[in-house]
Amino acid sequence: RHRPQMAWMKRAVGVLAMLALATSDDMEGEEYGYVTCGSVIKLQNERANYCLHSHDIKWGSGSSQQSVTAVEHKGDPNSLWKVTGANGAHCPQGTPVKIGQVIRLTHVQTKRNLHSHQYQSPLSKRQEVSCFGEGGKGDTGDNWIVESRNGGTHWKRDAPVRLQHQDTRHWLQTVSHYKFDQSNCGQNCPIGGQLEVMASRNAQDEANWWLTEDGIYFPHALPVQ
Question: Does pLDDT of 18 surpass 70?
Fold first, then answer.
């Protein structure tokens, strides 16, 4: 009867081990200079300075799928995301992600994919962002296009990018004044103090830009062209 607890403990130890790797200074040099498929990353919104986050808590409105928010605390393991290929496509581990490439971000803890669709988000009334699927398997609503502000051919670490939802052509964002608290989420709100993450149709919004934070970056095997 103690097996579920033991499984949870093993999982927590594994995540903590990943975080220890993620914050090390060993991943320096050109071979670690790009975000690659298979890498586990954190994304911090450039303007709000909060990290993309999820947890096994469902939205109380809209799709009722797993909620996605942004948190200030960078050490939370629920802010880790694995970079994978587009729905139905394989991207080999260590392959540098190209600008314009379609990817998915799989939430490490729950194995569900960053997702959007034409439901309304609870605070800003923009487009809802959720996590969807099981075991990393989902649908085309999990696909995001990587776009660069500074040009280049590949997604460089520490370079700002924005993620455009392929199905709806909206951009992933978070805004500091859309924060969950007792007034909009109830007295026992499980996501109090966290920011809403949504998708916006405004391509020029500065809230669309994200930076890679600590992570586990797999080196690329071949020179980046």
Answer: no
